[in-house]
Every structure is written in C-alpha cells, then in structure tokens.
Amino acid sequence: MKRMGFLSWALWFGYAFLYVPIALLIVYSFNESRLVTVWSGFSTKWYGELIHNDTLLDAALLSFQVAAVSATLSVLLGTCAGLALVRFGRFRGRTLFGGMITAPLVMPEVITGLSLLLLFVAMEQWLGWPDGRGITTITIAHTTFTMSYVAVVIQSRLAGMDGSLEEAAMDLGARPAKVFFVITLPLIAPALVAGWLLAFTLSLDDVVVASFVSGPGSTTLPMVIFSSVKFGISPQINALATLMVLVVATGIFVASIVMTRQERQRKRDEQMAIQNG
Amino acid sequence: MRTVVSILVSGLSRIGLWGRGVVVAIPYLWLMLFFLVPFLIVFGISFSESIIAQPPYSSLVEWLTDEDAGTSKLQVLLNISNYFRLGGDDLYILAYLNSLRIAAVTTLLCLAIGYPMAYAIAKSEPSRRGPLMMLVILPFWTSFLIRIYAWIGILKGNGVISNLLEWTGITSGPVEILYSDWAVYIGMTYCYLPFMVLPLYSTLEKMDPSLLEAAADLGSRPFKSFLSITLPLSLPGIVAGSLLVFIPAVGEFVTPELLGGPDTLMIGRVLWNEFFANRDWPVASAVAIALLLVLVVPIMIFQHVQGKQAEAGR
Amino acid sequence: MAGQPIRKPTRLEPWQDAGQTPYVRIEKVTKTFGDFVAVDEVSLSIYRNEFFALLGGSGSGKTTLLRMLAGFEQPTEGKIFIDGVDMAGIPPYERPVNMMFQSYALFPHMTVEQNVAFGLKQDGVAKAEIRDRVAEMLGMVQLSAFGKRRPHQLSGGQRQRVALARSLVKRPKLLLLDEPLGALDKKLRERTQFELVNIQEKLGVTFIVVTHDQEEAMTMSSRIAVMNHGVIAQVGTPTEIYEYPHNRFVAEFIGSINMFDGRVVSTDGDQVIVASEEAGCELLIAHATPAPAGSPVSVAIRPEKIALSKDPVAEGAPSGDGRNRTTGIVREIAYLGDVSIYLVQLPTGKTVRVTAPNVTRRTEMPITWEDEVTLTWRPFAGVVLTQ
Q: I need a surface site. Which of A96, A210, B48, C262 has the fewest CB within 10 A?
C-alpha cells in the first residue's frame, strides 16, 4: 500500500510538472500588465492586439499551408513506406530503407536543417531548381522529416492487423490494388488520420529546420514566435499560446469522447453476441 | 468521389506486381534524395574552404585547363583544416562534452520522472490507462516553443518560482534560475518527457502481472520483485526511451538558446552560430559531421531496438 | 475414437478407380523458406467430392501446402494442377479455389451481408443475383437474421458460419479450410463437424481441410494424409490409417498404440510370426506384409484389441501354442466412464496399455490394482511395421 502511495505521488508530480506551466501561461494571457509575471487585473486586450498583428497572422497562414501540404504528402509517402516495410517481405535495399525511415526520428534538427539547405543550394547550382528558398523548400523539408513518423504509425497499425484479411480478399477474387483500397485502406484509416495530425503538428512546431531552408518573405509562425521570445516575453505570445492550447485540447477532447463512445458500443455489442451465442 | 476511386482502382489494378515496385520506389527515392544525398553533400562541403561568394564555399572538384599545353586535368582539393580546427579549439571540444553531459542529465531526469509515471499508469485499471496516457501525450500536441516559453515566465528573476520563494521567506531577494544550465535541464526534461514515458509504458503494460504474483508466491517481497523482475523486463523500454531522449537532446538548439546562459555551450548552438552568424558553411558542416560521428553508435542501437520491436509486433 | 458419420456407400471410391482423373494433382512439390524445408517432395491426388484432411502437428507443412493450393505461396519445386490446369504463376484471385481462414478473416468494416457478397462483387455479378445468392447462403448457415450485423457483434460460432458462407458463395469447386473448427469450444466443434460434412455432401464441393486434431480428421474426412516434417507419412481412409498404419509415426500419432520390438521368425503366405522378448511371447500376425525371416520389426497392437483376464485359460484364447498371450501385473487403472484404461507391466518391464469397455458396474470390477492378468489378442489385431 505504501508503494502505491509513492506511485500516485509520482504520477501527480509528473502531471503537475507537465501542466502547471501551461496553466500559468493561460492565466497570464489575461493579465493586464505588460510585465507577464506581475498580476495587475483581468484583461483581454492582448487577444485584441493579437488579431491586429499582421506579421503574426501572415506567418500563421503560411505555416498552416505548409503544414497541410507537407502532412498530406507525408501521409502518402509514409503509407507507401509502411506498406513496403510490413507487407512486402524482403526486398533489395530493405535494410537501408528501414534505416532511412527510423533515422530521422532521432536526427538532431540542426543536422537535418543544414543538410537539406546544402542540398537545395547544390540543386539550384546544378539544376536551377528550386529557384531560391521559400514555401516549397520548407514543405519538402517538413515532408522529409515528418514522413518517418507517419511511416512508423502506419507500420505499427499494419503489423497489428490480421494479414489474412488481405489474403481473404485476394482469395475471393480482388486484385492487389483493389485489396489495398477496399480492405487495407479503410482498416488503417485511423492511423492515416493520426499520422496526418502528427505530421501537421510537427510541421507547425518546427523552428530549426524552417530557419535553415526558408528564404526572405517566407517566415513561418514558429520563426516569428522564436524571434519575439528571444527578445523577451510578451503577453501577446501568451494569448497566442492559449488559443493554440484551446484548439488542441478541444480537438483531443472531442476525439476521445468519440473514441470512448465507440469503444463502449463495441463492448456492449460483444457482450450481446456472447449472450446470444 | 466514388467514380474517381473506382477509376483509380481499375487503373491501378492493371498495374499488378509492377505497382509494388512503385510503392517502394516513391518513398525510397524521396528519402535517397532528401535524406541520404544531403549527408553526402554536408560531408563534401566539410572539406571545402570558406570563401566570400555565393554559395560561400569553394568547390572540391575543378577542371583546370592549361591553355599552353592544351591539356586539362581534374583537380580535387580536400581541405581538412576544418576538422583540425574542431580538434584544436577548446570551444568545440567543450561544446561537445557539454552537449553530452546535458543530454545525459536530461535523459536521467526524464527516466527518474517518467519511469514511476509509466509504471503507475501501467498498474492502474485498464479503463483508466488510455486517458492517463493521453494526458501525458497531450502537451506534445501543443507547440514545443510555447512550452519552452512558458518556463521563461516561471524561471526568470521576478518569475513565478522567484516570487514564490520570496513570499514564503526562503529567499530574501529575487532568484534567477533562467539563463543557467539548470534552466536547460528543466526545459529539456519537460519537452522530452513524453518520449520517455511512451516506450516505457508500452513495455510495462505488456508485462504479464502473474509474473509478479508468481514471484510473490515464491517468497519475493514487492521491492525485490520489482528489482529482479519488472526492471529487467522493462529494459527494452528504458533503452528505447533513453535513446529517443538522448540522441535529439545532444543536438538540441532551441532550449539552450532560449533558456541557457551565454556560457551554456551546446553543439547545436555552435553549429547554428557558425552557419548564421559567421556564415562559415564548411565549418558548420564539419561540426555536423562530427556530431553525427558522436551519435552514430546510439543511432545504430536505436535502429536495432526499433527493428526488433517491429519484428515483435508482427 | 468418435465414430464416422454414416457416409452413403459408393460403388467404387474414386481413388481406387483407375479411370478417374484427380481434381487436384500435387506433383513432387517442395517449398523451402531459406534453409527450412517446409514441404518436401509431396505428391498427392485428390478427387472430386472428396473431404480430404491434411493432418499433422505444428511445423508439419500442412498449412504451407494449403497456402500453395490457394496461391499465397509458390512452390519452390514441383507442380500443382487443379482441374488439369497448371497453377504455376496464377495469383490467388484468379484461382477456382476459395479458402476459409483459421482466423476467419472477416472484414471488420463490413456487415455480414457485405462480407458474403464481397467475392461475388469482385466477379461483377449482377446486384439482384448477389442479393439472392447471399440470402441463400445465409439461410444455409442459419444466419438470415444476422445479415446487417458486423463481425464483432457475432459469437465465435456465428463468425465461423459467416466465414464458411463467404467462402462457399462463389460456388468454388474446391474449398480449402485452415483449422476450420480450431477456434470453437469442444461441444460446438462436435456439432459443427457434422454440419460441415452435410454441407459438403449437399453442395458437392471438394474440401481440403488442414487440422491438427486427429479426431476431427477421422470424423469428417473421406481420406486423410498424415504429414510429418514436410513429408506425407501415409494417405488413406480413416479406417486404413487407424487399423493399418504404414509406419511407427502414423501408428503413434493416431490414437494410442502398443509397440513390441522383435524379429521375424517365419513367414507363411501373409501370416508372419515374430519373436519379441519385450512381449514375452511369440506374436502371430495375419494379413501382414511378408518380411524376410530374421529382419527386425515392430508389432503394433491397439489397446482396445487386447483382452484382459484374471483367469489364465479363460475366454477366447486363440491358440493353445502360447502365441499372442502374455502375463503381467496391473499397475494403473484409469476409469473414464465408458471404458477403463489398464496399464499392465510385463515381467520384461514393458508396460502395455489395454482399454476395456466397462460392461459391468465399477463397484463390482473383477480386476484391480496389483492383480496378475493374462493378455490375449487375435492374429489380425497386430500390424507389422518394418523400420
């Protein structure tokens, strides 16, 4: 019993560690004072200023575009990669392929950023493309490092799926491509959604890689936040953070309610099936 | 929509086995071009010389044409002085050692906080595990920058901790934790904690609880059982989680830049400064290659662990 | 051993009729995975309307053989013909074969009806016809009321029947079943065995069943191929396999059996006399394959073919010459209700297993522990197995 006590203390400490900073961030976004740490009354004026900050809004728009496109691309590429790794058995160069999928998961961002920039510079020199750096290069860079995450998510979903489902479809006369679209794809759909959201978040969160491969006029939201944070704290950032946390929390909350409900329904169905057996 | 899909299906159906090749080839080529080739370029440029030009490095390979003799030859210039600079200058060596130390401390802190959390969640009722894990991962979905930013307000002089200490009378004046190694430890632990808890939880959750019952039945006390059964069995999770924290932490840039002091030297910052402030691309490349060399062994262990997990999941 | 469901007697079984062409012909098929030989030069002929069982333990190669028939694996060597057509290079979706999977492999995102209709849709069958045929199939497996349900809303037995309906709806000439009853509990399994046989006879489909359960194979099939380490140990009807095992592996794999090692003393026509020190007597075997005198053999005798008696000269003593007769001491008795198992130790140390029906009530049992008993058996009880 004593040990359970220690464990629940540890658990609560861990959650406090994770959430107290975020809670404080939200509280101070409603602080009237410019001095973030001194409470001087409730106000929503920083939200008002935020709405009129064009630099921030432009950057946010750019970031959303990049994140949406690169998340979509990485789902396409990551699905192919996950499929190849789980379903195609051994093929030539599989080891190298597997390595190139897992390495970006832990690769320090400065290395990824620098190497991609040097590639783009070299390509521009030799091929004349990409012409300068901007939204295209950021999108390519983000796709490259987020597709690994997507591939891993899809890989684990595919590995957990009963392979005989696909064989059964083939046995009943469906060709491989049809099997993929009619059986595999609907069954891994949750992983596709999760992978897309993950890639979107990672892209929206990246400052280091984007700093390397962006060009003039293509400043992403994290780059703007980074430079303003470097110059000290600003209540506007608190307001922005609050909005972001709100959006994420709502999304996750809704998703988890839907999932719990489905799970409960499923359990009830199974119970009934056993009783009717 | 339905017709588009069916056209796609019938079109792709005809491709058959050839389609398998395409499915592998597309991500393969993408990763070759945007992941593998860039490393070779970094490696190449690390041997060039910094010059004032666009791009700011000398090319390694040149065709020299001798007009008089009417001959031409290929000249390859390998400049290893960048690496000598790394080895000769204390700044770089110190930065490397510092990075390894900070990453190691971060990993240990994550393990110290994350292991009990993962263990407690894995031990809780099955219906509560999902939501509890969700709460661990949730902060990860909010911006990483914002989370670092939150700590600035807490750690700075006149910040939350400082005010709290003053108010309780533990200290008499403001305390500045920000811009120190400790701020970096806290910030990095905060950011990387979910990466530690996740693999730990998944190995602990898979563990058969009857193993502990069997141990207890054979006369082992709970703490002894933990040391002799749970801990060894969760080792793969510890290794995976530690690598997932340690490797990116060594090359971390944002946290030391925002929370660390000017003397919090980390290799990621050095690389950044060489590249952006000094515009010395060759030295930045050499720093990157040296960083990769430090990380090659941990990365290979990580890939081995990942591969084994993928096998086991099958 | 459970009895066979009564099969209508046919004039001549197809495998005995030289004029019949086999529906499935497997010719010297070998399958290797790396260094591992899963199937080793297997040849088999299976005829129309057969209920054929591939019986073996795990790793015997039975499932690999089935997957090669379905087209999921390609033979490393050898050929497979189905209805006279060489199957080499023909993908699963173009074979006239359907399969019922061990896990049932029901598509979780489709209803029962959609699952059953899937195969017909692939062939472009008209919608109205699909509806009729699905309804007919569901009726046959008594699931008409469950068409709109999803697989997770069904019990194990219902899922098994959906899987069966789905694999039969395309009216394949050949159905492959991978451990079709493996996931069901014992009671349900017994009932389903008979259902499967009825459906097979009604539709006239050739069934090839993979199973590790000998009782299941004996109950359902017309013929059994016993597999061991990728090789076929014996092919035959359940009776042949049980009564006339060709080798030690088959004898010991199916049911339980007593083995006496010895040497051939003499052969007279199909009568063989074997001297066995282990048995403590000479063994006379009728209808045996002749073997040269002096050659080492094993004699296999089923436990239920041995009579047990406390009286040394009592009932059915077949020959007065001391053959097929030995004595021992009862060491263990296991009472199973309908029969009892006796373990009798011979003076040579050999333990013999004898089963006897409990004709009388147990309370009045004449034979008990440590009794000295006489074991006797008839000349056609034993089978001679050469090494």
A: A96
- Tell me what percent of the residues of chain C surpass a pLDDT of 70: 93
The reply to whether C49 and C183 lie within a common domain is: yes
Q: Is the pLDDT of residue C3 over 50?
A: no
The total of structural domains in chain C comes to: 2
Lowest mean pLDDT among A130-139, A149-158, B296-305, C227-236: B296-305
Q: Is C122 on the interface with A (CB under 8 A)?
A: yes
Contact in structure between B243 and B301 (CB atoms under 8 Å): yes
Of residues C230, C229, C210, the one with CA closest to residue C221:
C210
Q: Are residues C264 and C335 in the same domain?
A: yes
Q: How confident is the model at residue B169 (pLDDT cuts 50, 70, 90)?
A: confident
pLDDT of residue C301: 93
The nearest alpha carbon in chain A to C72 belongs to A167
Is residue C188 in some structural domain?
yes
CATH 1.10.3720.10: which residues of chain B?
81-313
pLDDT classification of C8: cutoffs 50, 70, 90: low
- What is the model's pLDDT at position A212? 94
Q: What is the mean pLDDT of residues A57-80?
A: 94
Q: What does the DSSP assignment read for C53-113?
A: EEEE-TTSSHHHHHHHHHTSS--SEEEEEETTEE-TT--GGGSSEEEE-TT----TTS-HH
Identify the CATH number of the domain in which residue C80 sits: 3.40.50.300
Q: Could you say which of C251, C268, C285 is where a domain stops?
A: C251
pLDDT of res. B13: 47
Task: Summarize pLDDT for A195-228 with one digit per residue, the tens.
Answer: 999 999 999 989 999 999 998 888 999 999 998 8
Average pLDDT, chain C: 88
Q: Which run of H or of E encompasses B248?
A: helix B235-250
* pLDDT value at B261 more than 60: yes
Same domain, C329 and C355: yes
Q: What is the pLDDT of residues B197-233, one digit of tens each?
A: 999 999 999 888 888 888 888 888 888 888 888 999 9
Q: Are B186 and B148 in contact (CB under 8 A)?
A: no
Chains in contact with B, where contact means 3 or more Cβ–Cβ distances below 8 Å, are A
Among C residues 127-156, those touching chain A with beta carbons less than 8 Å apart = 150, 152-156
Same domain, C64 and C197: yes
Nearest CA in chain C to A187: C109
In a domain, residue C78? The reply is: yes
Q: In terms of Cα–Cα distance, which of C179, C233, C204 is closest to C60?
A: C233
Distance (Å, rounded) from C-alpha A14 to C-alpha B190?
10
Using CB atoms, which residue from A165, A173, A269 is nearest to C123?
A173
In CATH terms, the fold of domain B81-313 is MetI-like fold (1.10.3720)
Poorest-pLDDT segment among A8-22, A176-190, B150-164, C368-382: B150-164
* Token couple for B75: 């000249």
Using CA atoms, how far apart are residues B75 and B61, in angstroms rounded to an integer?
6
C108 part of a folded domain = no
Q: Give the DSSP H/E element, type plus range, for residue C10.
A: none
Q: Are C379 and C265 found together in one domain?
A: yes
Same domain, C238 and C274: no
Strands C174-178 and C97-100, by their bridges, are: parallel
Q: Which residue of C has its CA nearest to A272?
A: C153
Which of A38, A115, A133, A212 is most worth mutating to test chain B (most B CB atoms within 10 A of its CB)?
A115
Q: Answer whether A119 sits within 8 Å of B307, measured CB to CB.
A: no
**Shortest Cα–Cα distance, B215 to chain A (Å):** 17
Domain residues for the domain of C297 are 256-386
Residues C299 and C191 in one domain: no
Residue C208 contacts residue C24 (beta carbons within 8 Å): yes
Position C148 in a domain: no
Query: What is the structure's pLDDT at C221?
Result: 92
Q: Which CATH number does the domain housing residue C281 bear?
A: 2.40.50.100
Do C260 and C245 sit in the same domain of this protein?
no
Domains present along chain A, CATH in parentheses: 53-233 (1.10.3720.10)
Is the ipTM higher than 0.90? The answer is: no
